Amino acid sequence: MSLIRFYCSYSLLLFFLFLCSISAIPTQVNGDSTTKTMEDFSGYPIHEPSHSFSPTFLPSSLSVDAQTLQNQIDELSTFSDTPAPSVTRVLYTEKDVLARRYIKNLLGLSGLSVREDAVGNIFGRWDGSEPELTAVATGSHIDAIPYSGKYDGVVGVLGAIEAINVLKRSGFKPKRSLEVILFTSEEPTRFGISCLGSRLLSGSEALAEALKTTVDSQNISFLKAARSAGYAKDQDDLSSVFLEKGSYSAFVELHIEQGPILEAEGLPIGIVTAIAAPASIKVDFEGNGGHAGAVLMPNRNDAGLAAAELALAVEKHVLDSGSIDTVGTVGILELHPGAINSIPSKSHLEIDTRDIDEKRRNNVIEKIQQSAMTIAKNRGVKLSEFKIINQDPPALSDKSVIEAMEAASKELNLTHKLMISRAYHDSLFMARISPMGMLFIPCYKGYSHKPEEYASSQDIANGVKVLALTLAKLSLS
Ligand SMILES: [Zn+2]
Q1: What number does CATH give the domain 278-391?
Q2: Which superkingdom is the protein from (predicted)?
Q3: I need a surface site. Which of 88, 167, 208, 292 has the fewest CB within 10 A?
Q4: Mean pLDDT to the nearest integer, 183-203
């Protein structure tokens, strides 16, 4: 029976002949309950395919259970500390623990073997026919910042589990094992550290060290919080979480775009070629302050004006980079003492600057620092702090993963667009230990991190299908 012939013709007759011929082959998996469920679902017999099974055959047999997936997204959103439609799910809280249990249960129901590491990254593995080969992984996060929506991250976790179900129902058998990962705390809500789980997986010694003394706003230590959720049991050293470079042959994350491009252009799939990474900077200026009436203009050293001038300098340096991909924001600007009749004696700025080109972004940071020093000198104020809080390198998607995602979209007749992720994701850190790629699906008006966040069942199902076929391809490569 030639699968290639089948693929080339797509004729109904051959499809019929194909079904007849495989149903004539004696099955070796009669007693397998997964197969029985698959058979119930698809309405025709499914048998273990041979390992030479061609991934190009798959598109016609991939069916997403969009209704069940939507029900799961709705159900997961009820594990929230704020009322619907908002979702608030903060690391290691009771609701987070319950939501994790919900996911582990689903991983088990899909026949995956589940393990958790010391910070609660959760892994569900489907062993391939050659389990000694490095696995292909997919996943995202389920934590949600206060009063946010139910799709950010969740689509990449529940969607990944459904992608595995899709492949199982189709009769696909992976060569490389497939693994679903739930990353701990992508959002910085509780401990101020974003992508905590994936950053640690990627081997961040600095983070493993910092977490020994990190506390939240209630002064609860990270380790105590982790223990209350059942993690970090008998060790303070979290280096057990580190994965070696090359632990996976590929990693793919499915995510809502969190931007308006796909929806506006009417495209179902975005294929991410690069993830921009932010650097954050804290700046403090100090002047003498004084009475707003009594101190004459030539005698002032106004810390507030220094901050204002620096904010404009940030904009100038970003625009001067010459690339539309360079962005900079002064999101916090505080003046002390903050009275109408008092010259600001202190000012505090927090600056976020991002790019997909690390050198270009770091060049902007350097110029901002030079401006801060020049402004302080000219205005007679003290630059009491210029601190780069973090400076993560951007990541490029891997060519082989991009090609697999593009081929999958094409075979499924779903138009795609190559694009840049301007928000950053766990994929940014997975790129340090594995070839990486990301799939975007449209979301309503690009809304995210608010209750109005929405992605249609159809768009989610398309994303899951492309993910499933991409995983199949990568698993056989
Ligand atoms: Zn996210």
Answers
A1: 3.30.70.360
A2: Eukaryota
A3: 292
A4: 95
